[in-house]
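Homework help board

Subject: predicted structure for assignment chain

Our instructor gave us this sequence and asked us to write out the predicted structure in token form, then describe one feature. I got the tokens but I'm not sure how to describe them. Can anyone check?
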Amino acid sequence: MRLLPHVSEKAYDGTKRRTYAFQIPRDADKFAIKREVESTYGVTVTGVRTLSQKAKTRRRGRRGGGAITGEKAGFKKAYVTLKEGDTIKELSS
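My token output:
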């Protein structure tokens, strides 16, 4: 499974509360996410929350009939909470 750290202001703020955000494959379940984080980073996971981020419509070009519209791809995201005292050094500062 491929876990990509999700970088945003909200995700960075969550690291203070031992919660880390990852972009995950759409078919990943909570148990697989927990196993992957524990084996990759050597920490103990106490909770996993997932959500599917919807695709967003984007416009490019001038106003009127010449604008080109498209979609920014959606993705699935997981918020992983760690045991008290555990941190992921690569994702924290």
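Reply (TA_rk): Your tokens look well-formed. For the description, you could write something like this. Helices lie at 9-14, 30-41. That's the kind of observation they're looking for.
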